[in-house]
């Protein structure tokens, strides 16, 4: 019996991750509700895009390319310097929902990814 395909493989691998991240940050630049979270980022998004691509690749079961460079993700700790409330969480999810809808054709995989990302986004909240 073969192992089930990783989420990374199900969504299309590196090409899909790249497209999702690019669309995610484009949505952050264009969605009105994302202005507050966009302001938390530098003008040049090149570095943060690269890090998110590596993180999502590893997080979805693809190549281990994040942790050798960054160590354990410690996502909540890494984001403590930014005020993340319900509105910030919702804006982040709106950007991610846009990107997933555009680039993940497998509806089941998209729903599973969204559920897992929503849990992560909810856990990142650190202010009222």
Automatic annotation (TrEMBL):
Lineage: Bacteria, Pseudomonadati, Pseudomonadota, Alphaproteobacteria, Hyphomicrobiales
CDD domains linked: TrHb2_PhHbO-like_O
Entry's Gene Ontology molecular function annotations: heme binding; metal ion binding; oxygen binding; oxygen carrier activity
Residue ranges the record marks as coiled coil: none
Pfam families linked: Bac_globin
Family: Belongs to the truncated hemoglobin family. Group II subfamily.
Record keywords: Heme, Iron, Metal-binding, Transport
Entries under Gene3D superfamilies matching the protein: Globins
Species: Rhodoblastus sphagnicola
UniProt name for this protein: Globin
């Amino acid at each position: 019996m073969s192992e089930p395909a990783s989420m990374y493989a199900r969504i299309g691998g590196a090409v899909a991750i790249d497209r999702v991240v690019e669309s995610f940050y484009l949505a952050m630049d264009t969605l009105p509700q994302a202005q507050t979270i966009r302001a938390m980022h530098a003008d040049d998004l090149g570095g943060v895009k690269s890090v998110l691509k590596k993180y999502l690749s590893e997080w979805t079961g693809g190549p281990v390319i994040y942790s050798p460079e960054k160590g354990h993700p410690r996502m909540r700790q890494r984001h403590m310097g930014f005020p993340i409330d319900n509105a910030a969480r919702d804006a982040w999810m709106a950007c991610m929902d846009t990107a997933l809808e555009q680039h993940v054709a497998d509806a089941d995989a998209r729903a599973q990814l969204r559920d897992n990302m929503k849990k992560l986004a909810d856990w990142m909240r650190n202010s009222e």
